[in-house]
Amino acid sequence: MNRSRGEGTVMKKIRGRMDESILVCVYYGPNGERLIKRGHKLAQIMDCPLYVLTVDALPYDEFDADKSGYVERWKELCDELDVEEFMIRDDERRPFVKVIAEVAHNQNITQIIIGQSPQNRWEEITKGSIINALLREMTFIDIHIVSIDRTLKSIEDTTYEKGVRAFLQKDENETYRLSFARSKYNLYEGIFYKEIGTDFNNGVFKFVNNKGKTCQVHVTEDIITGAMKEPPNVKK
Predict the structure, then answer these.
(1) Which UniProt keywords apply (predicted)?
(2) pLDDT at 150
């Protein structure tokens, strides 16, 4: 399944230099945001289009809370930076190199930025054999391997338990409360990911809205924190 930001857009902003275009390849972790910003700076200097790509073997709906959180933040950042297109290649069985090469060809990419980090799958791309494979697949494309500090960690990084089926109900105080039982009072159905190391139901509730988009809200001691912007997804 391929998803991209800005589906249905009639026109895209025309950049100054259409002979150059940049593709940033990100995987899950705090380094992705840094790579996107690095690509944006380079695109500004070159006055050319910027694309962002993430690839995963799992279907999008099976992403855990961490992955979903990173993807949503990248989408927001791409909107903020006026990125040409954010692309997700999920449920992908082909080697990552093949997918990158295909996207690069379709978007006329001339520069590729990939992060070097031993903490995610992109580390394999930094090995000589993978670099050679990329070069063979993508002739006349410059590949930038960005060194990432191994100690770089996100303050928001949290480890979660395996997700369990859960529901949300609205109580008399007009707040949404977590429930694990089927009931006529359930308004939302989704998956709850509990933070490891807590005795309370603290964590993330992930659900699919009526438009098929994966959303998530934070849970603190059974209560949803922040405003619930999505309509209920449980059909009555």
Answers:
(1) Kinase, Transferase
(2) 43
Burial string for 105-128 (b: 16+ CB within 10 Å, else e) reads eebebbbbbbbebebeebeebbee
What does the DSSP 8-state code read for residue 232? P
Q: What is the pLDDT of residues 214-234, one digit of tens each?
A: 888 889 999 998 888 899 999
**What phi, psi does 70 have (nearest 5°)?**
-65, -45
The span from the CA of 27 to the CA of 118, in Å, is 12
Please name the amino acid found at residue 160: Y
Quote the CA–CA distance of 50 and 44 in Å, as a whole number: 9
What is the model's pTM? 0.57
How many Cβ atoms sit within 10 Å of the Cβ of residue 99? 18
**Where would I find the H helices in the chain?**
31-46, 65-80, 96-106, 128-137
**pLDDT for residue 178:** 95
Low-confidence spans in the chain with pLDDT less than 70? 1-18, 116-133, 147-159, 236
For helices 65-80 and 31-46, give the axis angle rounded to 10 degrees.
20
Strand pairing report for 142-147 and 111-116: parallel
52 and 36 Cβ atoms separated by less than 8 Å: yes
Strand partners, 116: 147
